[in-house]
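anyone seen this seq b4? input:
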Amino acid sequence: MIDHLGINCADWEKSKAFYDKVLGVLGYTRQKDYGVAIGYGRDGKPDFWIGDMSAGDASGPNREVHVAFRAADEDAVRAFYQAALEAGAEPLHEPQLWPQYHPGYFGAFVRDPDGNNIEAVFHGARPQD
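predicted toks r here
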């Protein structure tokens, strides 16, 4: 069900050191590091992300939580996006390939009624010509 989860951290330096240490003893390491966001996991798959709260557009005392739900295929991602819009979600990113994440990453993003960034993702998409 849950593909990956992201939280935002107020003290970026302290949070990086904390998660490096506590996740390290569980066998998880940094899989991706974008400077303002770090993904932890194993075998090249980041499952848990931390983000620098001071980076980007902070809205209120805490930026949104990011939750990505695993989808069975590209059609399921499209259906998620359409259902979310029909339910009143704010569109963030229409269903599309995100090759900057990895080849085959097909996702769509919406903002839920509480302002959280919610995604559906399928990891086996074929590149479009």
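The chain is about 20% helix and 40% strand. Residues 12-24 form the longest helix (13 residues). kinda curious what u guys think
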